[in-house]
Here is the input.
Amino acid sequence: MSAGGAAQQRATESSFQESSGGMRQVRLRLAACRMIPHGEMTSDLPGGEWNVSPSRHKSRSHVLRAEQEEEEEEEEEEQGDDHLFTSHHDCPLVQQKLSGWSDPALSDPGFQSSLRGQRVLWPLTDQEELKRQRQSQFLMHRRLYMNIEREQVKENKQHRKHLKRTARIKAEKEQIRVEEERKLERVRQLAEARQKLEERELLILERLKLEEEERAEELQRRKREEKGKVAARFIEALRAQMKERLSQEKLDLPPLCCCASSFWDSHPDTCANNCVFHNNPKAYAKALHSTMLSLDLH
Here is the structure.
């Protein structure tokens, strides 16, 4: 490699490190300006259609290869960059010229393979570049907004679905709660009705029991009254019989108890509380009957 090629390589590398973007456009424009006119393409120089020596062509191809590798690395790092330039002719005018080329030298297979092997990058004009950048930015923002809108629509749909599901679950829970409350209310009402019925039955039973006790007491009272009446009649009959007997025999008997002054003063209704005949007509009748038997024996 010659000294000139090495110097050019170092200059190119340093300038590329300073400004990779500017170097790219400058290199593309210089490459476009380096196109050889039609008359020089069939030159007999050793360099072929570029008019350079083999050693110089080798060094320049090495530099271009290094630049292309660095550009590929840069393009891999910049994932969102729009490709403004391609390896083919993007200029419609250049494509028209190449397609309408009427030189008979193009029919040469070797020349056509040489042209296919060495494609030249053509830069776009500033207005077209700005227009394409704006269009690409517009499309990128449009895709971004469309993605955002789709995500929002999806989120809104999921949110509405979640709200419907939540409302359905709440309605089901509320219905279950209402049914449970109704069931508990029915159970409570049945319990209250049963309790009232039991209380009513208890009241009826107590009233019947009291009525039965009252009837029993009334019956006993009547029986006691009847017995008292019978005893009183029996005592009165004995007293009358004793009076008649004593009047016939003209006898005077002593008092039957200590609380009486005479025989006839002793009576169950008039005797003292500590007397044996007090409210005891049976004992008084027995005493009268014994007295009468003793009189019969005499």
In short: Confidence is low (pLDDT under 50) at residues 34-59, 79-107, 114-124.
